Amino acid sequence: MTSVARFDRAKRPTYVPSLELVPEVLAGSRLAIARMISRAEGNYAEATAALAEIYKHTGKAHIIGITGVPGAGKSTLVASLIKALTLEGHKVGVVAIDPSSPFSGGAILGDRVRMNDAAEANQAFVRSMATRGHLGGLAPSTLQAVDVLDAAGYSPIIIETVGVGQDEVEIVTAAHTVVVLSAPGLGDDIQAIKAGILEIADIHVVSKADKPEAAATVAAIKGMLALGGGTTHSTWGSPVLAVSSVSGEHMESLQATLRNHWKHLQDSGEFAARERNNCRTRIFNMARHLFQQQFDAGANDLEQHLQAVVRRESDPRTAANVLLGWNQER
Question: Which positions fall inside the AAA+ ATPase domain (predicted)?
Answer without folding.
Answer: 60-204
